Sequence to fold (176 residues):
Amino acid sequence: MGCLTLLSEPKIVRREAPLPAEPTVDRIDLKLIAVLQAEGRITNQALSERVGLSPSACLVRVRRLETAGFILGYHASVAIERLRPTVVIFAETTLTRHHPADFAAFEAFAQTVPEIVEAAQVSGAFDYLLKVVVADMRAWRELSDRILNSDLGVGKISSHVMMKAAKTAEGVEIVP
Fold:
């Protein structure tokens, strides 16, 4: 008599669907970003010639890069000191509490103050480094008092007055 072998039922293996991939960029996209970073006012025609694309293909790529968040905007560099009196302050700002809600409240406040032109949460001896542009020291004193006397939980602000801009941001190196 023959031998009967029972095979186990096949196992069904479920694989999770892969997460959608982050948008990617290729060498042409990197060239586009580099040129636009250096020359934000360049025409689409000139940009397309610089990167070797047709104008329509170039515009499609630029729009995709904008939509995907690789290109955040286009700005003019302004010599504000030529328009009005200006004092630039770098302010080391320390919070008294370090709960996520405290950081969120401070960041929301910073977004509402036009004199705070940049705010970076940093590691080290203080929590935020602010770049503040005001008309004069009186205006800075009033703003810093407002920050300290608010219910934001700011315990300390150390101010540094910019004497001159030794180097200004003109973008970062993009290597295609």
Observations:
- Residues 122 and 128 are 6 Å apart (CA to CA).
- The two ends are 72 Å apart (CA to CA).
- The helical segments are 27-38, 44-51, 55-67, 80-83, 100-112, 137-149.
- The first helix runs from residue 27 to 38.
